[in-house]
Amino acid sequence: MTATRIDGKAFAAKLRERVGATALTFAQDAGRKPGLAVVLVGDDPASQVYVGSKGKATLAANMNSFEHRLPDDTGEEALLSLIDQLNNDDAVDGILVQLPLPDHLDEQSIIASINPDKDVDGFHIINAGRLSVGQSGFVPCTPLGCMMLLTDRLGDLSGLEAVVVGRSNIVGKPMAQLLLDANATVTIAHSRTKDLPSVVKRADIVVAAVGRPHMIGKDWLKDGATVIDVGINRLPPEPGKEKGKLVGDVAYDEASEIAAAITPVPGGVGPMTIAVLLRNTVVAAHRNAGLDAPKGL
Ligand code: NDP
């Protein structure tokens, strides 16, 4: 079997188009554009790039982007005061604090200070709780993006065996929750799981969110499995090259021989994350304005 390549980049581009069109209609109805505020503390180069690309994508989706770049030595009080200001700003529908924060800031208490109804990253404990009990809130962007790719590919997930490898609060746990809500039979595996290959081999759906290059090979997979590779790992550079290749947690080429469908890295889950962030922001704008967000976004 040669697996179908699940084209997250193309799916994300279509989602961004739908979000952009929805934002235009929202602006006509509400008399203002949806707005996303992104807060970056410090000068971590990767975070600078992420924040820059989120800003561009927000503008391209017909929304306002408010960037707040603060120095590395920003204190907790100053950061909490900015978040308070954004919580109370009617032009701001979504607030994202770029992680990781510098060590002197406590991520949990900073995230907890965001109004849950503006927490478009879905990291607030209230949104984690809402997801856990099946209430509507904001779901973290990466797992929600994975879920969109899975349902687009498989339709009804009822009764399918799903194994999520990784149990982080931002990927593994919400992913498992979403699969459970979709009536899959879910196993969450992690670094202490015994005989991981045989656990993964049971799965009709494998979601790999570990951060170990090419950990999952073809021998771990069931014939015809659908594989979602969240991992982003940079290999050491080849001789003469400045940067190493980006690869996932799954050995793509060999896994393709046995899986029915698989996401590539790059071009699979990665592009979905920003697209879902924009989607969550336009949904937040509707809720904040007391309007119904269009179904199927
Ligand atoms: P974390 O480091 O927070 O979590 C990694 C998880 O993998 C942990 O639960 C850990 O288990 C588990 N793990 C580690 N080693 C093993 C092992 N040998 N066998 C089984 N499980 C193992 O990572 P994140 O969840 O934040 O991210 C995971 C990957 O996804 C990373 O590569 C990251 O870069 C990528 N990512 C990609 C995004 C995208 O947009 N595509 C967005 C977010 C993340 P334990 O809990 O026992 O330690």
Explained architecture:
The structure is a single chain. The protein is α/β, with parallel strands linked by helices and 297 residues long. It contains ten helices and eleven strands. It has two domains: 31-115, Rossmann fold, CATH 3.40.50.10860; 141-270, Rossmann fold (3-Layer(aba) Sandwich). It has helices at 8-30, 45-60, 76-87, 107-112, 125-133, 141-154, 172-181, 196-201, 252-255, 270-288, and strands at 4-5, 35-41, 64-70, 94-97, 161-165, 185-189, 205-208, 226-229, 233-234, 246-247, 261-262. It has a six-stranded parallel sheet with strand order 1-11-8-7-5-6. Strands 3-2-4 form a three-stranded parallel sheet, sandwiched between helices. α1 (8-30) packs parallel to α10, α6 (141-154) runs parallel beside α7 (172-181) and α6 crosses α10. The longest helix is centred in the N-terminal third of the chain and has 23 residues, at 8-30. Residues 142, 165-168, 170-172, 189-193, 196, 209-212, 230-233, 269-270, 273 line the site of NADPH dihydro-nicotinamide-adenine-dinucleotide phosphate (NDP). NADPH dihydro-nicotinamide-adenine-dinucleotide phosphate binds next to α10.
Provide keyphrases for this structure:
297 residues, globular, 2 domains, single chain, six-stranded parallel β-sheet, Rossmann fold, 11 strands, binds NADPH dihydro-nicotinamide-adenine-dinucleotide phosphate, alpha/beta
Adjacency order of strands in the biggest sheet: 1-11-8-7-5-6
So what's the overall shape?
A: globular
Q: How many helices in DSSP terms?
A: 10
- Total strands: the figure is 11
Secondary-structure element pattern, one letter each = EHEHEHEHHHEHEHEEEEHEH
Indicate the CATH class of the largest domain.
Alpha Beta
Mean pLDDT figure: 97
**Helix/strand class:** alpha/beta
- What portion of the residues fall into strands of 2 or more residues? 5-15%
Using the CA coordinates, give the radius of gyration.
19 Å
Low-confidence stretches: none
Bound molecules: NADPH dihydro-nicotinamide-adenine-dinucleotide phosphate
Within CATH, the superfamily of the largest domain carries the name: NAD(P)-binding Rossmann-like Domain
> Which sheet architecture does the biggest sheet show?
6 strands, parallel
Helix percent band? 40-55%
Q: Tell me which oligomeric state these chains represent.
A: single chain
Question: Which CATH architecture of the largest domain would you pick?
Answer: 3-Layer(aba) Sandwich
CATH fold topology of the largest domain? Rossmann fold
